[in-house]
Design a protein that fits this description.
alpha+beta; Glutaredoxin; Glutathione S-transferase Yfyf (Class Pi), Chain A, domain 2; 2 domains; four-stranded mixed β-sheet; 11 helices; about 55% helix; binds glutathione
């Protein structure tokens, strides 16, 4: 299995399946396409007839593109990895929040590009403030769920208890909130601490810090 990603420092979509695969203990090779600095991604995409966008997974001679599709295929292929929560109720919540991340939070995503190695303080604009308020609501829904949901929650500090795809989907949001000095809610802070402490997240950060590539526009956000 081979995962094609981009810059660990900047590529938020790359982080999602990479983290899910690492936390699940799935073995894979990784290739980095630094698409601002060379043509490796466009060359590969032309050859495979897919969009020039990462992440991409090669599995059993099949090419899968798009972060959500990759994680769904992995969940299908490795059911024992429990990439989605075991409980159907939690799966529905996790899938809804994952889809919301995949298609939403445009304010936060455009104002605050993921930049793992740079910590600074930037005020949120009106669109980002709406997204931050939505994150607070969402986190309340996960952590103050009704009794029926709570009784089927697995153990752990993550959104559904044990780590699952929904945590991977929001992993770049952890970097954005933390590294731009933003605040969502106490529940979000507790989740963020658990995410930051994951050895796999620290592995990603170390690799991001060691990367030599720079995207000046992202480093100039203020
Ligand atoms: N919806 C896609 C988004 C992927 C995406 O936008 N990837 C960015 C990197 S984080 C990319 O490959 N950009 C290529 C480019 O701008 O040339 C997914 O979930 O995989």
């Amino acid at each position: 299995m081979e995962l094609f990603i981009a810059y660990k420092n900047y590529s938020s979509w790359s982080l999602r399946p990479w983290l899910a695969m690492k936390v699940a203990g799935l073995a894979f090779e990784e290739t980095i396409f630094p698409f601002y600095h060379d043509t490796s991604l466009t060359d590969f995409a032309r050859q495979e007839v897919i969009p020039a966008s990462v992440p991409i997974l090669k599995i059993d001679n099949q090419v899968v593109w798009d972060s959500m599709a990759i994680m769904e295929v992995l969940a299908d292929t490795y059911p024992e990895a429990n990439l989605w929560p075991e409980s159907k109720l939690w799966r529905a919540l996790a899938r809804s929040a994952s889809a919301e991340m995949h298609s939403g939070f445009l304010g936060l995503r455009s104002q605050f590009p993921m930049n793992c190695r740079r910590q600074t303080k930037v005020s949120a604009n009106a669109e980002s403030l709406k997204d931050i308020a939505r994150l607070a609501d969402l986190w309340r829904q996960f952590y103050q769920a009704d009794e029926e949901l709570i009784s089927s929650r697995s153990q752990g500090p993550f959104l559904c208890g044990a780590f699952s795809i929904v945590d991977a989907m929001y992993a770049p949001v952890m970097w954005r909130i933390r590294n731009y000095g933003l605040f969502v809610s106490d529940e979000f802070e507790a989740w963020s601490k658990a995410m930051y402490a994951l050895p796999e997240m620290q592995e990603w950060l170390q690799a991001a810090e060691a990367e030599k590539w720079i995207i000046e526009a992202y480093d100039a956000v203020n």
